[in-house]
Specification:
It is built from 16 helices and 22 strands. It is of the alpha+beta class. The strands form five sheets. It has a six-stranded mixed sheet with strand order 3-2-1-4-6-5, sandwiched between helices. The protein has a five-stranded antiparallel sheet with strand order 7-8-11-10-9. A hairpin with an 8-residue loop joins strand 17 and strand 18. The longest helix has 24 residues.
Length: 464
């Protein structure tokens, strides 16, 4: 076994990226990174007791060059004895229709195809070829554009069922591995163009930084791991204060630091979480607005009101901060209160005034009763939603016989009428999979045959 393959094996085991018997679906572009990933996983099939398949997405952008890449991917999969799939999409058309960049449209479509195919072929994990250089480039890009500590964490080794076995490997090692094995790979001509921000960083910024520190990629990668560790600690500390500092009053959310001697970084996270509770995300609030809020609170000003620029106003009232939405969330108007869970996990969404965090785990330890556990493999991909109850809703609660109207279930469960219309329901296709915080549906409970679990935590709500 070559050193490169040993390093990949070490990363897989370190982050628990694969288990014996897993089927791994590799995202294969034909470039050096994804080809090295495919070859390494192919070589490690026996050591890991896994099977490997690959999927190539032809974006319909580079004409004959794209067709060349597709044919190459088909060829190398044949040589390695790897099951091959290919999807063709028209990214320019999708980008125009959705009014987004081709780069973003391509990424969204790739992951959509990856997840749909994973379900179709019963794969367990999706392996993508992000490496240590990619993570360093991401940190630089976010640092230049402006971000919080969270933006400096780099690329995570795992994200739900998506794994990145090359995340601790530098691009130079990838090229050396392919050279030693005499394996060809395709060059994407757009990688040489500095039309994209990432290419400027890759082609111009990093080479300059390497003159200062030849090990700059490893240095940035190590720094990002330290930042992630610190960020997790600060976040956990702030979360422990949410219930003490945040209360609801009808449609308003009140933040009361209560004279606590809190560092501004903790106050910032509590403020951002309050914004999240009101609008379902933390987008569009600027640092200057957070600074303004903290300054007013620290000065003890009363009667001051200001717009923080994301559909939210804040006013000060006798040592308290009162956050209000200027109008109902646009998404709720468009979707009638329905929130569709994204394809990528972990994720955090807002439904019915509740903050809901979801992640995928293969660990069948469901002893922590502060979480809700649902059999993820029984949910319809792309059709997992959160919403509140509707007339005629029916539910099959676990531990009970048959089906009930949701209203009757709430009555039997002694749920207050005041909160019934805000309790989030986890739905898949046309079924209610779980009444969050109360009961999982009989068809969706975790059993000893469950392979992937949707692990959910819920906080907030109208009665907090």
């Amino acid at each position: 076994m070559l050193d490169f393959e040993k390093n990949v094996l070490c990363t897989i085991k370190k982050y628990n990226m694969a288990e014996s018997g897993d089927k791994i679906l590799v995202g294969l572009s034909g470039g050096a990174d994804s080809v090295s990933l495919l070859c390494a996983l192919g070589a490690l099939r026996s050591a890991l007791s896994i099977s490997v398949a690959a999927v190539h997405v032809n974006h319909g952008i580079r004409g004959a060059e794209a067709d060349r890449d597709e044919e190459y991917c088909r060829k190398i999969c044949g040589e390695l004895g790897v099951e091959f799939f290919c999807e063709r999409v028209n990214i320019p058309q999708i980008a125009a229709e959705e009014k987004i960049s081709e780069e973003l449209a391509g990424r969204k479509m790739r992951y959509k195809i990856f997840h749909e195919l994973k379900e179709k072929i019963s794969a367990d994990k999706i392996a993508v070829a992000h490496n240590k250089n990619d993570s360093a480039e991401t940190v630089i890009m976010k640092l230049v554009r402006g971000c919080s500590l969270n933006g400096l964490r780099g690329i995570a080794p795992t994200n739900g069922c998506v794994v990145r076995p090359l995340i601790e490997t530098e691009r130079e090692s990838i090229e050396k591995y392919l050279f030693r094995k005499n394996i060809a790979y395709m060059n994407d001509s757009t990688n040489e163009s500095n039309a994209y921000t990432r290419n400027i960083i890759r082609n111009e910024v990093l080479p300059i930084l390497k003159k200062i520190n030849p090990s700059v990629v490893s240095t940035i990668f190590a720094d990002s791991k330290n930042i992630a560790c610190d960020d997790d600690f600060i976040d956990d500390y702030a979360k422990g204060l949410y219930n003490d500092c945040i209360t609801k009053n009808n449609c308003d959310i009140i933040v009361n630091f209560g004279g606590k001697d809190l560092h501004n970084c903790i106050k910032k996270r509590i403020i951002l979480y309050t914004v999240f509770l009101l609008k379902g995300d933390k987008n569009d609030i600027e640092q200057k607005h957070i600074d303004m809020i903290i300054e007013c609170d620290s000065a003890g000003k009363t009667g001051k009101s200001f717009d923080i620029g994301c559909g939210i106003t804040v006013r000060t009232e006798y040592g308290k901060l009162v956050f209000s939405r200027k109008s109902a969330p646009a998404d709720n108007k468009k979707n009638d209160g329905v929130v569709t869970l994204p394809d990528n996990f972990p994720c955090e969404v807002n439904s019915g005034g509740y903050s809901i965090k979801c992640e995928i785990t293969g660990n069948n330890d469901i002893s922590d009763k502060s979480y809700i556990y649902v059999d993820y493999d029984k949910l319809a991909r792309g059709k997992i939603t959160l919403r509140t109850r509707r007339d005629g809703d029916r539910f099959s609660p676990s531990g009970m016989n048959g089906e009930k109207k949701i209203k009757k279930f709430f009555i039997d469960a002694k749920i207050s009428p005041a909160v019934r219309d805000s309790i989030p329901l986890l739905c898949t296709a046309d079924k209610i999979a779980a009444v969050l915080g109360i009961r999982v549906g009989a068809d969706f409970i975790v059993t000893d045959k469950t392979k992937n679990i949707l692990k959910i935590s819920i906080s907030g709500g109208t009665n907090d």
